[in-house]
Amino acid sequence: xxxxxxxxxxxxxxxxxxxxxxxxxxxxxxxxxxxxxxxxxxxxxxxxxxxxxxxxxxxxxxxxxxxxxxxxxxxxxxxxxxxxxxxxxxxxxxxxxxxxxxxxxxxxxxxxxxxxxxxxxxxxxxxxxxxxxxxxxxxxxxxxxxxxxxxxxxxxxxxxxxxxxxxxxxxxxxxxxxxxxxxxxxxxxxxxxxxxxxxxxxxxxxxxxxxxxxxxxxxxxxxxxxxxxxxxxxxxxxxxxxxxxxxxxxxxxxxxxxxxxxxxxxxxxxxxxxx
Length: 275
What we know:
This protein has about 280 residues and is an alpha+beta fold. The chain is about 50% helix and about 10% strand. The chain has ten helices and six strands; from the N terminus they run αααααββαααβββαβα. The chain has helices spanning about 1-20, 35-55, 60-70, 75-85, 90-110, 125-145, 160-165, 170-175, 210-220, 235-245; strands at about 115, 125, 185-190, 195-200, 205-210, 230-235. The strands form two sheets. Strands 4-3-5-6 form a four-stranded mixed beta sheet. A hairpin with a 5-residue loop joins β3 (about 185-190) and β4. α1 (about 1-20) runs antiparallel to α5 (about 90-110), α2 (about 35-55) crosses α4 and α7 (about 160-165) packs across α9 (about 210-220). The model is unreliable at about 265-275 (pLDDT under 50).
């Protein structure tokens, strides 16, 4: 599956971004729930392991779920993830994460896309599983790019996240126990390559036009719609961009306007003053 390579390409981009950091700098807090870079990378690594187990070792995945449920019963998810990885952190965590991601990529590249896999919620296809891992890497990675003041150079592999945003149009409303207020609005999004990506029929639901990257930031709830330059026309389109959620779990609200942003890099191109 091409999505497996897309996932790995996103991982290697984040891997390169983290290369200059000292072990101590991995404890830098981000604008995502105050999670540190270590917290985010552990989260990505643990759930990559889980996704790989669901493909390669169903019994092992069941055992993982049991550990996870017991681990978060009296604590937070980041605490369980740190315990599960025996406190792995810093550059050692970075190296272990990318090595596992490479192995996982090989497994999913050879998998049957329609193969059904167990997950925390409903079963999903292997294609959906690896696409979700790509989306999580991209979305959680955004908080790291932001805190380091780095401008991400996206590739057209984010088309996978755009499609995920489109495909979860109906689920977004169902998850909130609401009826869709109309047909999905028409999308006209500019890809990183400059190509035009269009989805949905022209209708009274309206239009969402602009950067595909910013659309991905909204549906993954990395940005409030007010903090983007997306052109949103029509009541239905505006309602969607306020509640859009392309990831599983109970309804989540996007960050408040102005809360998530890329920090200015004032250190002459350096990530940290002591670099």
